[in-house]
Amino acid sequence: MKLIISIFSSIAVIFLFIFLYNYRISRIIVEKNLKTNAENLTKSGVSQIEKILYSIQKIPDNYSQIIQNSDYSQDELVKLLKQEVELNPEIYGAALAFEPYFTDKNEKYYMPYYYRKQGKLDLIFLGDERYDYFTMDWYQIPKELNHPVWSEPYFDEGAGNTIMSTYSVPLYRTVEGKKQFIGILTADVSLDWLQNFVNSIKVYQSGYAFMISQNGTIVTHPMKELIMNETIFSIAEAQNSSQLRVIGRNMISGKTSFAELEYHNVKTGKLSWLAYAPVKLNGWSIGIVFPVDEFMADVNSLYTRVLVLGIGGGLIILIVIILISRSITRPLRSLTQAAKKIAEGNFNVELPDIKTHDEMKELHDSFVYMQKELAEYIVNLKETTSAREKIESELRIAREIQMGMIPHIFPPFPNLSQIDLFAVLKPAKEVGGDLYDFFLIGEDKLCFAIGDVSGKGVPASLFMAVTRTLLRSVSDKGGSPSVFVSSLNKSLSYNNESSMFVTFFCGILNLNTGELKFSNAGHNPPFLVRENGAVEMFELTKSIPIGLFEDIRYSESIVHLNKGDKIFMYTDGVTEAENCEKVLYSDKRLIGILQNNNTNSPEQLIKVVEEDVAVHVGKHTQSDDITMMTIVFYG
Amino acid sequence: MKTKRFYTILIIGFFSLCLASCKNKPVTNDEIALPDVIDSNTATTQLRKVTFLPYWVCNAQFAGYYMAREMGIYKKHGIDLTIIPFQPFYTTTALIGTGEADFAALWLVNAIEVRASGTDIVNIAQFSTRSSLMLVTKKSSGIDELEKMNHKRAGIWSGFELQPTALFKKFHLDVEIIPIGSTNNLFLKDGVDITNANWFDEYHSIINSGYNPDELNTFFFADYGLNFLEDGMYCLSDKMKNDPKLCTDFVEATMEGWQLAFSNPEKAIDIVIEYAQKQNIPVNRVHQQWMLDRYRDLYYPEGKISTTLSEKDYLFAAKVLKESGLISAIPPFKDFYRPCKLNNKK
After folding, report:
1. Is B77 exposed, middle or buried (0-12, 13-18, 19+ CB in 10 A)?
2. With contact defined as beta carbons under 8 Å apart, do A522 and A503 qualify?
């Protein structure tokens, strides 16, 4: 699942990034094209308008030259005026207006006006107190500015309820070397053609063109109610748009812009681009509104489709990923189930069948191998275990036999008041190589022995069994400890190919006298614990352990026990018992214990030592057989 | 060219005059509750036919008249009013003199001139309390104080030279006055340095021709001691003498119309625009809004409409007229000002 999410989200992020990048670039390209388009459209619009305006201007310009340069009579002037209108269908009417009293000293006003009336030319003479043309814009402005001027647009019902503009050319005559203003020649032009032309500029569905005069008055606009009523500034004020006001100021001051400009399309209210450029001949300005959203509509619809395709593709990828990952994980899951069953011990569980030859197949083959190996291993293990169990069982029996060989009923001689005796043997393994033994020889002699076979385990235990059996055998013949030891040595050394040996201490205590004869073959010297608490160590033996060399003669010594004295015998498993720090129990510590517990009975004493050794060893495993035997002489 | 426009306006003017006199209310409004319902007595009695002549084309500067007419206020006062569309060739003198117009709105100085030239008109109510006339310069011209107008050219409406001339004379300024028509185009095209403008009208037109208020300097005549009062209500003195009740009813209805217009500016502007469009007069809402707002400032400075003309204001304007030679003698104030007795109710 995690895999599916990470793969799919990575693909989605990459796709989204590519999509957004592409979309952004496409928009930039479209915007760039739009700007070029806007520039071309606006420039070509302006150039066409100027071409027409220029051709109209030429007419009164030319006539003004004729009038200025000759001294025509009033009739001739009227004829020229008629000609100007008659020959030029684009001119609706023309007036020739002169300065006060210029043509006649008695007439303040002289203004012949030719205009088209129902297809014919009509002539009227204007100018009186009521129609005081000297203060009218078409007359006064070119006069004051000294150059021809296109008037602000005006409505003219007489000319067919159309918007008109008057082109006025000032006339001059040189009088006494001075250039003198004499009047104005006009051409009234209907702006129908201009409106039609500007309205014909369509930009997509809702784009449009409009034109404003030098005062910002709307001259052409697809919304007819704005024409002549509103200025671009009054619209800005109504829309509370300071930006539109700035645009208007730029437009009337002859500036050009094709750049991105936010402009609320008056028709749709949508944010659009506005390109504008001045018509230099009359100072008006044409504005073209580009509905950016429509231009972008193609890009947007393309990218909507791409997005839909992308989402569809993404879903397909998702499904494919899920299917592939399922096909990968299905055998994995089966293998997991199989592994669980194998773990539960069912080695014969059937593994899924892998038909591919990929990593999954390798994994499968590894599982097959593992299954086979495990099965074999378990068979081996079973065999080994049963063998081991058999050995262990035999060893247990051997231990029982070994333990059965040494006397283990205490007190051993309840009828003998002269002595008390206690012994213990704790093998480090199931069976051990230590031994002790005691038995009475006759009625007043106690023979006892303690030994330690070299090595441990079964061989040592067998050797021990032999030693013990031989001891009983040689003791039957009678004799002293040295005889017993020598006999044992001889018997054990014979054919002793395994070179095993036994350290051996054997003593015979006279129960009546307390005389103790003993022979020590390489064994740890026992301690004599006197009744008064003094602990004496038997002298170190110079004899080697038995079983090595046949011909060794072992000596014996005598020590006399007083009433209450004890003999404490042990094997090196006591003094060499190690703790975790490899520190030995030591003779010194043993002596301390013996001194402190000198009054104890043999059993108590041995238990105390046993506990103290256990304390010393702690959790460390017992490394050697531990054997102790104590005899107290009561006399 | 303007000629044709004026002719056609003239024709349409007469045409609409006929129309206006025979048709019923073109606009009704159910949303605005009238202060008083038309009372049954006056409604059943014969309405008195009355004509009124404004001194300019249909604009919000006459919103009170149009509002009162369309909202039935004149009818409530027993008057069937016809508003004569303004024509440049109609001189108020002629119309009021012949009785073709029963009442006319005029500026005080124009009215004094008419009276002094022999037409027996009287002021029955003086609405304007402050002159809205101003001079405007462009900051770029550097004319930011009156003194700097010296030796400059001022485009002043032909026939309206009195107030500017008096101002320049008072401050000893040598300003070349160029008589202009009704537009500010010469000023906009830098043909003159100074132009005159009504605060409520041309000043806003200049702003709506692309000049920002902070690019213009303004000089109100009133601020320079030349506060010529403007709109007042006039009729022939005979009419006042013979039918003072009609005069009172007309003035009261007009005041009520103005109050309703100020409290319902949107409706008032709707009505004005409708009238203007019928007369083919270019009109836009923001300009009409500006005009009505300024008229509220001029007419309604303290929340009530005054109708009083003080002798001081009258004599001040009359003296300037006499000094300029436009009139030879000052008509006596008591002959000129015959206020109608108004009921105290609003």
Report:
1. buried
2. yes
Note the pLDDT of residue B91. 65
What whole-number distance in Å separates Cα of residue A220 and Cα of residue A208?
10
Positions of chain A with pLDDT lower than 50, given as ranges = none
Q: Does A223 touch chain B (CB under 8 A)?
A: no
B187 Cα to chain A: minimum distance (Å): 9
| Distance of alpha carbon A546 from alpha carbon A500, whole angstroms | 9
Provide the token pair at A94. Answer: 């023309």
Chains A–B, number of C-beta pairs less than 8 Å apart: 111
Residues 1-60 of A with CB under 8 A from B: none
pLDDT in tens, A493-552: 888 888 889 999 999 999 989 999 999 999 999 999 988 888 888 887 778 899 888 888
Is A128 an interface residue toward B (CB < 8 Å)? Answer: no
For residues B81 and B102, give the distance between their C-alpha atoms in angstroms, rounded to a whole number: 10
Query: Residue type at A62?
Result: N
Tokens of B221: 């005549």
- Tell me how far apart the alpha carbons of residues B260 and B254 are, in angstroms, rounded to a whole number: 10
Split into its structural domains, chain A has a count of 4
The pLDDT of residue B144 is 93
B282 → closest Cβ in A126, A159, A229: A229
Nearest CA in chain A to B180: A135
The pLDDT assigned to A224 comes to 87
How far is Cα B21 from Cα A552, in angstroms, rounded to an integer? 171
Residue with tokens 């605005």: B32
Query: Residue B5: its chain A contacts at CB < 8 A?
Result: 154-158
| Structural domain harbouring A419 | 406-633
CATH number of the domain enclosing A306: 3.30.450.20
Q: How many residues does chain B have?
A: 346
Q: Helix or strand or coil: residue A122?
A: strand
From 3.40.640.10, 3.40.190.10, 1.10.10.10, 3.30.300.20, which CATH number describes the B2-129+229-336 domain?
Answer: 3.40.190.10
Interface of B with A in 235-294 (CB under 8 A): 280, 282-287
Contact A113 B1 (CB under 8 A): yes
- The low-confidence residues of chain B, meaning pLDDT below 70, are 1-45, 88-94, 344-346
Provide the pLDDT for residue A264.
67
Contact B208 A233 (CB under 8 A): yes
Name the burial class of residue A543, with classes exposed (0-12), middle (13-18) and buried (19+) by CB atoms within 10 angstroms of its CB. buried
Q: B186 and A214 in contact by Cβ < 8 A? A: no
Taking a contact as any Cβ pair under 8 Å apart, which residues of chain A between 504 and 563 contact chain B?
A: none
Of A294, A228, A239, A233, nearest to A266 (Cα)? A239
Res B92: pLDDT: 66
* Count helices and strands in chain A by DSSP H and E runs: 13, 22
Tell me, yes or no, whether A18 and A47 share the same domain. yes
Q: Sign (positive/negative) of CA torsion A165, B136, B292, B247?
A: negative
Task: State both tokens at A208.
Answer: 């449009």
Q: What is the pLDDT of residues B80-132, one digit of tens each?
A: 999 998 876 666 666 777 778 899 999 999 999 999 988 899 999 999 989 99
Give the start-to-end residue ranges of the domains of chain B: 2-129+229-336, 133-224
Q: What was the pLDDT predicted at A476?
A: 84
- A207 and A88 together in one domain: no
Put simply, whether B189 touches A (Cβ < 8 Å) is: yes
A441 three-state secondary structure: strand
Q: How far apart are CA B241 and CA A545, in angstroms?
A: 173
pLDDT confidence of residue B176: 95
Q: A169 and A140 in contact (C-beta within 8 Å)? A: no
How far is it, in rounded angstroms, from Cα B107 to Cα A193?
Answer: 43
